[in-house]
Write a structure and sequence with these properties.
The chain has 136 residues and is of the alpha+beta class. It is built from three helices and seven strands; from the N terminus they run αββββαβαββ.
Length: 136
């Protein structure tokens, strides 16, 4: 069991590292199963979107991003991934106070979700991706 205080702090970390601070969302055309060892989408498109994030309570985080139809035209989307820049494992081991300079960073994938294909986007379409998670 995690205490409520730790759940709140974990939600803040997820919101800040994968949300509005430096998080991005990628879309892709791959649709197969996913692996916990994956570091990128199966077949990523060259387009990414900046994330925004919010919290509905202390332990629920919602990450949103939007893509224009013109950036997706001609593609059928089957997967999405949420990414953020985190300190490397070696850098995390060295953190000893809140003024530590996080450098270098590495991009990590928080989650990959595959789904039934959607596609045939027009240039006037806007696709909004919303990912909601609860720290338990």
């Amino acid at each position: 069991m995690m205490t409520d205080a730790v759940k709140k702090k974990m939600a803040i970390v997820l919101r800040e590292f994968f949300g509005s601070t430096n998080g991005t969302t990628k879309l892709g055309t791959g649709g197969g199963g996913t692996s916990s060892n994956a570091t990128d989408l199966d077949v990523p498109l060259l387009t990414t979107a900046t994330n925004t994030s919010s919290s509905s309570d202390d332990k629920v985080v919602e990450i949103k991003s939007s893509f224009t139809g013109s950036s997706l035209q001609g593609n059928t989307i089957r997967e999405m991934g949420i990414f953020g820049n985190l300190p490397t494992d070696a850098e995390l081991a060295l953190i000893d106070n809140s003024s530590y300079n996080f450098s270098p960073l590495e991009q990590v994938m928080l989650a990959r979700i595959n789904f039934a294909a959607i596609g045939n986007f027009s240039t006037s379409d806007t696709i909004e991706v919303i990912y909601t998670m609860e720290v338990e």
